[in-house]
Design goal:
This protein has 180 residues and is α+β, with helices and mostly antiparallel strands. It is built from 9 helices and 4 strands; from the N terminus they run H-H-H-H-E-H-E-H-E-E-H-H-H. It has a two-stranded parallel ribbon with strand order 1-2. It has a two-stranded antiparallel sheet with strand order 3-4. The longest helix has 18 residues.
Length: 180
């Protein structure tokens, strides 16, 4: 999943053509069915141009944060999406919109996400299980609530201690993590 439509999509190809390419490459559906899938995928992913919804637009006409997730995996009926830092560098409102859409798609379509991020506040809100890596090595794997309540690895405790504090409960947890 890319945040910038110009890096996620071929700027010389209209949105619908990019989705169609994925359908053709993976042989999804009959050729006649693919056009219907293109429009449906564009609507589901909310890939909207600034001047109205249509898969017949160029990527540069898309509003910032509107390609969430990329329509091609949705059109191809992918069940697992790998999302590498999908919300980094987004303002809070766009980030919230993206996370709501991801949760909606996960619920409605039964999707599984492999969500790669350093933003632990996002992890807490979207993940059911968390794997923590330090220098490419898995150091902890746990259910999200358990990991945030009782991290066992020192690296995980350090990461959680660095999360900005919003509530009194989070401050208490930070104090426990910081002072042992």
């Amino acid at each position: 999943m890319q945040q910038n439509p110009l890096s996620a999509l071929n700027p010389r190809r209209r949105i619908g053509a990019s989705i169609r390419l994925a359908l053709d490459v993976h042989g999804v559906g009959a050729p006649a069915e693919r056009d219907a899938r293109i429009g449906c995928a564009a609507r589901r992913s909310r890939a909207r141009p600034r001047d109205g919804p249509s898969p017949a637009v160029e990527p540069f006409r898309l509003a910032s944060g509107s390609v969430w997730p990329s329509p091609a995996p949705i059109a191809c009926d992918s069940r697992v999406l790998v999302l590498d830092e999908p919300t980094s560098a987004l303002d809070v409102l766009v980030q919230g919109r993206v996370l709501r859409l991801l949760n909606e798609l996960r619920t409605r379509r039964g999707l599984t996400y492999v969500f790669i991020t350093h933003d632990l506040s996002v992890v807490r809100n979207i993940a059911t299980r968390v794997a923590v890596f330090e220098k490419g090595r898995l150091v902890e794997l746990a259910e999200t609530t358990a990991l945030f309540a009782r991290p066992s690895h020192p690296y995980t405790r350090g990461l959680l201690a660095a999360v900005p504090v919003v509530t009194a409960g989070e401050q208490t947890l930070r104090d426990q993590l910081t002072h042992g």
